[in-house]
Structures are given as structure tokens and as C-alpha cells.
Amino acid sequence: MSVSADEFKQALQLWASGITVVTTYSDKFGLQGMTVTAFSSVSVDPPQILVCLNERADTGEGIQTGGYFAVNVLSQDQQDVSNQFAGGCSQQERFANTPWQPGIHGVPVLTDSLMSLECKLVDKTLAGTHWIMIGEVQNSLCRTGQPILYYRGGYKRLAE
């Protein structure tokens, strides 16, 4: 017997995680991006990461169509960016209000993020309600600053 959805969500609120915005571009859908906390490294050789996206999210369809995506780790000064990309406004508004530049494969890279990884989609698996998308890192950009964290349903900062 498994735990209920509410019990599962309550337990996972005790896991502090960084906040990312996953972005992509495809000719079919244009610029797309969404806030994601389910992000992890997979392998060093080859360098691979994974992100988990709700199967209903249009950004996942864009990644599958375009074949490339970027994971942008947000800094402590980007709470507004996290909120924008979490929904409530159009894809066009998200990018109009956030500084970005095209990456090596044309996907948007958020220029104020703490770190950005540009990835080629190499595998995907549907697990429950989410796509697990594995990307091989093609380029990395590291900047200075501190990350913003998500814990117990709210934003947190690292102590100095």
C-alpha cells in the first residue's frame, strides 16, 4: 500500500531544493520555459542531467520537438523569475520580462541565472504523471552569486 498524494507532498516539503527554469526553443512552439525543482545530475562521463516535467506542461512537448533544452539554476535575486515561469502568464510574457540570450543550439539561456547547462535530449521516460528527460550537457555557464532554495512551500536563502 502506498502513501496518499497529500502524505507524499507533505513529506517532500521537507526536502530543500534549488530552483531552476528549464527553457527550450522549437520551430513549432517557439520559446518555452517553466520553473522546475526536480533536477539532478545523472552521469559525469558522459555529462548528463535529468529534469522531471509534468506531462501536461507544454514545455515538455517543446523539448521533445526541438531536441535541446537549458537548465538555468536561479540565484537568490530571481524569486520573481521563478514565479513568472511557474505560470500565470504567457510564454511570451515570461521571456519578455526576463533577460536571456540564445545558447549554442538556440535555446534561451537566462543571463542572470547562477548557472546554465545547455543540453541535448538523449532519453525520456514517462513515470506516473511526469516525463523524466535526460540531457547530455553540451555547454555550461557558471556565474557568481547564491542560489535560491525552495523549502516547506516557500523561498529560502542560504545563511551567510
TrEMBL record:
<feature type="domain" description="Flavin reductase like">
    <location>
        <begin position="12"/>
        <end position="157"/>
    </location>
</feature>
<dbReference type="Pfam" id="PF01613">
    <property type="entry name" value="Flavin_Reduct"/>
</dbReference>
<dbReference type="InterPro" id="IPR012349">
    <property type="entry name" value="Split_barrel_FMN-bd"/>
</dbReference>
<keyword id="KW-0560">Oxidoreductase</keyword>
<dbReference type="GO" id="GO:0042602">
    <property type="term" value="F:riboflavin reductase (NADPH) activity"/>
</dbReference>
<dbReference type="InterPro" id="IPR050268">
    <property type="entry name" value="NADH-dep_flavin_reductase"/>
</dbReference>
<dbReference type="InterPro" id="IPR002563">
    <property type="entry name" value="Flavin_Rdtase-like_dom"/>
</dbReference>
<dbReference type="GO" id="GO:0010181">
    <property type="term" value="F:FMN binding"/>
</dbReference>
<comment type="similarity">
    <text>Belongs to the non-flavoprotein flavin reductase family.</text>
</comment>
<protein>
    <submittedName>
        <fullName>Flavin reductase</fullName>
    </submittedName>
</protein>
